[in-house]
């Protein structure tokens, strides 16, 4: 079986479970960040009507290296790791945009390659909560959208949204997978969470990862924290 086909099959099997993770919620209910099930509202659980298996698989077509390290266990661990981080970043697939994101300044004015556009905000959006002007600019150039002038498209076009997550993953996380799940935490939010910065967040990510590894029938490996 090809690595791509294996990845597609595993993602297809895991995605529905990921969306209803941990609360034991039915597929049409939202699992809140506090651990209870409910119908939610458009603002509190917008992701339930946004993130879909079909959109992820469409985005995946542009990233053939994802889940393709040459081993079945490696493929399973990468899928588990990716969805562990996505589950954590989106509050179990409820959030498309960072809570109170517009109140934060994610404009690095020293970055002249990807200068901020007046009136635009570069707060967290999408499955991995893409942030900062330089990430929006680089992702947009790679994927084919104007990330500096129209960062909001990451919260309205679900395929582009998943592509930004996969773009970030392949450029910043994929290469450290062999070092263990802890290295992926460091690559995504290490400055804030690692070395005791936010132990609860690290433990939450690790637990999601272990859960997904269990569902996919693979050991989580070593070096899980950072």
What report would you give on this structure?
Residues 32-36 have low confidence and may be disordered. The chain is built from seven helices and two strands, in the order H-E-E-H-H-H-H-H-H. A hairpin with a 5-residue loop joins strand 1 and strand 2. With 226 residues, the protein is an all-alpha fold. A two-stranded antiparallel sheet has the order 1-2.
Notable traits:
226 residues; mainly alpha; two-stranded antiparallel sheet; 7 helices; 2 strands; 2% strand
Give the SSE layout:
Elements: H1 3-19, E1 30-31, E2 37-38, H2 53-60, H3 72-89, H4 133-143, H5 158-172, H6 181-193, H7 199-216
Antiparallel strand pairs: 1-2
Please give a quick description of this structure.
By secondary structure, this protein is mostly helical. It has helices at 3-19, 53-60, 72-89, 133-143, 158-172, 181-193, 199-216, and strands at residues 30-31, 37-38. A two-stranded antiparallel ribbon has the order 1-2.
Spans of 5+ residues with little confidence (pLDDT < 50)? 32-36
The end-to-end span amounts to 34 Å
Radius of gyration: 17 Å
Q: Order of strands across the biggest sheet?
A: 1-2
The profile of the biggest β sheet is: 2 strands, antiparallel
* Topology pattern, helix = H, strand = E: HEEHHHHHH
What is the subunit arrangement here?
Answer: single chain
Shape: globular
Helical fraction: 40-55%
The strand count comes to 2
Overall structural class, as computed from helix and strand content, comes to mainly alpha
Strand content: under 5%
Supply the number of helical segments: 7
Mean pLDDT: 88
């Amino acid at each position: 079986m090809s690595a791509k086909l294996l990845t597609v099959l595993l993602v297809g099997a895991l995605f529905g479970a990921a969306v209803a993770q941990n609360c034991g919620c039915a597929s049409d209910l939202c699992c809140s960040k506090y651990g209870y099930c409910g119908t939610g509202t458009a603002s509190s659980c917008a992701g339930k009507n946004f993130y879909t298996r079909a959109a992820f698989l469409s985005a995946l077509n542009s990233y053939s290296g994802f889940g393709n390290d040459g081993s079945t266990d490696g493929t399973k661990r990468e899928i588990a790791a990716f969805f562990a981080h996505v589950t954590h970043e989106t509050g179990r697939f409820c959030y498309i945009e960072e809570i109170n994101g517009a109140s934060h300044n994610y404009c690095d004015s020293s970055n002249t390659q990807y200068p901020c556009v007046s009136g635009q905000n570069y707060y967290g959006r999408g499955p991995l909560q893409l942030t900062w002007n330089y990430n929006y600019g680089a992702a947009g150039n790679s994927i084919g959208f104007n990330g500096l002038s129209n960062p909001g498209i990451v919260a309205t076009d679900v395929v582009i949204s998943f592509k930004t997550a996969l773009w970030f993953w392949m450029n910043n996380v994929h290469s450290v997978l062999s070092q263990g799940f802890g290295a992926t935490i460091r690559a995504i939010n290490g400055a804030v969470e690692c070395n005791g910065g936010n132990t609860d967040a690290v433990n939450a990510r690790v637990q999601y990862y272990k859960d997904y590894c269990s569902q996919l029938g693979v050991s989580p490996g070593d070096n899980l924290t950072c």
